[in-house]
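Supplementary Text 2. Reproducibility record for the structural model of the 421-residue chain.

All settings were left at their defaults, and a single model was retained for analysis rather than an ensemble. We include the record here because the model underlies the residue-level annotations in Supplementary Table 4.
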Amino acid sequence: MRLVRTVFLTALLGSVWIFSEPASAQGLIQGRSLGMANAFTSIARGVYAPGWNPANLALDGNPGFDFNLVGVGIRVGNSTLSKHFYDLYNGKTLNEKDKSDILNRVPDNGLRFLMDTQLQALGVAYKSFAFTVSGFAGTNIAIDKDYLDIVLHGIDMNRKYSLGDNQGGSLSYSKIAFSAAHRFSVPFVDFVAVGVNAGYLVGIGVAEIRQMQAEFYNSYDGYADGKLLARYALLGRGFSLDLGVATVYKNWNVGLAVSNMLGSIKWTGERKAHWESFRTLVNLNVFSVSQTSDGDSIVQRDSSDYTPPPFSTRLPVEMRIGASRTWRSFLFAVDYHQGFANRPGVSPKPYLAVGGEWHGIGFLPLRFGLGLGGYYGISPAMGFGLHAGFFKFDLGWMFRGGLLPSYAKGVSLGMNLNFRF
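Retained model, structure tokens:
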């Protein structure tokens, strides 16, 4: 049975590695926003307003002209692993308590990994209008929890393993967006501003697992079967629409934005799909396997490659509500984010962020923040800027899932360089 177990695990784990080119990504990864734990919906101005709330283009505090030279951000993380976790068990002979603790740290929906990157290649804002060109790429992998159980405990007799929580996909695209905002007077508040981003999406590539399941029963009359459906596409196009509203009330800036209210990419370029299934033809035990002369008599495998019809990828919808106020040299902000999909950068779990920015040293703004909820739970953040006349540089980072870096399960880094007049 050791040979059967080795072949079985190698085949399934190999399938995960080959086809887990993870799912869609969208995120707002910027130096100043990260330093404030992304409590930025009511603060973003100039070229950064379209990514957070396009209505902010009509608020006070916008530069006359804002040019983004470059903006780069990256977010990496996982559901379970941290440096502290690694230090606990590295080099240790694991007992049953250790194994149970490791498994309890893995969510029921599997061990998950993600990476999300963003590049703002060009951004220009003038008065209440903006034009931005950005690139996005994201990955997401989920591996069934039972794989880790098998690695730690081996395969138990008379037990059925259902390995169906494997997921994965990747998405990369560029977005060319035109943004505009307008404000008008209303009773009870200073004014109300509304804004819109109209985006043209250029799809670069997508790959995803549509289905991956396997079942294995270890006994004298054991069996195994499984199936996989994966596909990829190159070149596509689509459109997106983001809406926002903002106001000022008693020195508080308040805003609400919905990203990707409409947004999808239709893939019409090169497309391929792969279907594969397998099932055992004999009972998986030492006697039956030893009596079989070749592998084809043990497993029946069917596979096919074909060109699927054009299909669309829906971008994840997220709502953000934010409020901020300046008191002397201190800026305070709070945000609430609610995603409507489980994607990198967007989570259906509510996210609350509190952030601050201190301007006591004019050219060196210092930032800090704390996020709660969302994909990771607790997320401390910090950052700073270097502002010299029209030259603006901002750097921020946020640790995901732990107050201390050694306990964090991920990290986000963002940097922006722009000229404001």
